[in-house]
């Protein structure tokens, strides 16, 4: 089976052939969108800031990342292939990958590019371990971008465990209980921060869509003037 067809265009929502909303991301159709009015419960608890990490945990994250970033695109591809194997329904969330067999996806340039974007977010997190405020702001903005893209909330939950599964064999003997705990804490924090921001944005959108429509003052004034004439 060949690669899925990708339609290029601007940002925004359109209807797919089956009537579902689609979202354009960077010119490509990426996520199957949820209705704007969909509200979600609060995200799970995690550490409040990367400042809560110990110096040892930060060092373990930085040192292990140096090994991983040598072939980070492959790490990302492995992560997504594992995701689609363990959660087949998630493949349909990414519109260009819908119906594409996994062996073909392993060679997909589009999957490689998306994997690099996700890995880039992890890279920025590791590089900002000493700048907790900047990292929090970055992750919050990333969560809002996922809301605009109509991403499903559970998608964010799945990435952390799949990332851990992908890097464990690569790190080999350097994968210790301490390293696993450090990565788990960071990924849980990233997930919770993004979800909190996404939920706030989506609930605000849902609340806004439920408000009754009103005419702006200028339109009302013009209408009154026309009636008086």
Descriptive key words:
disordered C terminus, mainly alpha, 3-stranded antiparallel β-sheet, 229 residues
What would you say this structure looks like, in words?
With 229 residues, this protein is mainly α. 58% of the residues lie in helices and 6% in strands. It has helices at residues 55-68, 72-86, 102-105, 109-127, 132-148, 153-171, 177-209, 217-228, and strands at 12-15, 21-25, 28-32. Strands 1-2-3 form a 3-stranded antiparallel beta sheet, with no helix packed on it. The radius of gyration is 21 Å and the shape is globular. The N and C termini lie far apart (68 Å). Mean pLDDT is 76; it is low at 1-43 and 219-227.
Spatial shape: globular
The ordered H/E elements are EEEHHHHHHHH
> Unreliable stretches, pLDDT < 50, 5 or more residues?
1-43, 219-227
Sequence of strands across the biggest β-sheet: 1-2-3
Rg (CA only):
21 Å
Number of E strands: 3
Largest sheet: 3 strands, antiparallel
What is the residue-mean pLDDT, rounded to a whole number? 76
The percentage helix is 55-70%
Tally of individual helices: 8
Please give the alpha-carbon distance between the first and last residues: 68 Å
Strand content: 5-15%
| Helix-strand category | mainly alpha
């Amino acid at each position: 089976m060949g690669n899925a067809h990708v339609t290029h265009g601007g940002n925004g929502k359109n209807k797919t052939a089956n009537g579902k909303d689609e979202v354009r991301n960077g010119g490509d159709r990426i996520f199957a969108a949820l209705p704007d009015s969909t509200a979600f419960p609060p995200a799970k608890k995690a550490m409040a800031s990367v400042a809560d990490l110990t110096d040892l945990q930060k060092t373990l994250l930085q040192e292990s990342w140096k090994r991983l970033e040598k072939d980070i695109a492959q790490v990302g591809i492995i992560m997504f292939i594992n995701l689609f194997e363990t959660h087949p329904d998630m493949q349909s969330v990414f519109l260009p990958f819908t119906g594409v067999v996994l062996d073909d996806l392993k060679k997909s340039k589009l999957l490689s590019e998306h994997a690099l974007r996700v890995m880039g977010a992890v890279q920025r997190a590791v590089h900002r371990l000493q700048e907790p405020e900047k990292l929090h702001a970055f992750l919050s903005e990333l969560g809002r971008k996922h809301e605009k893209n109509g991403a499903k909330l559970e998608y964010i939950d799945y990435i952390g465990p799949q990332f851990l599964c992908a890097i464990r064999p690569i790190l080999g003997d350097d994968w210790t209980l301490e390293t696993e705990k450090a990565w788990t804490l960071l990924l849980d924090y990233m997930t919770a921060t993004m979800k909190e921001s996404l939920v706030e944005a989506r609930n605000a959108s849902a609340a806004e869509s439920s408000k009754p429509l009103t005419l702006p003052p200028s339109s009302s004034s013009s209408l009154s003037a026309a009636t008086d004439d």
